[in-house]
Write a structure and sequence with these properties.
The chain has two helices and two strands, in the order αββα. The chain is α+β, with helices and mostly antiparallel strands. The protein has one domain.
Length: 94
Amino acid sequence: MKRFKLILGLVLFALGIFALVHPSFDYHKREEVARIGSFKATVDEEKTAQVPVAVTVVLLVSGLVLVGSSAGLGAGIGCSRLKIQAVTRPGCCR
């Protein structure tokens, strides 16, 4: 399970870095506008897609959390190595 979390975390982090470096990308869309018998009229248009900043941040943070929790750095939720002890003063709880 740790290995899966590590690989998934690295993939998410790499996608976040890629989205940070290239926040927009272009693609071509071919659309058929008319058809008369065997004749087809198509339009090839170039479109631009933007990667939202929130998606980039979520990819980076989730990747770091998964890598940190799989490496045992205590960054994971529910880490069993973290122990919290109650500190009481003498005479305060009777």
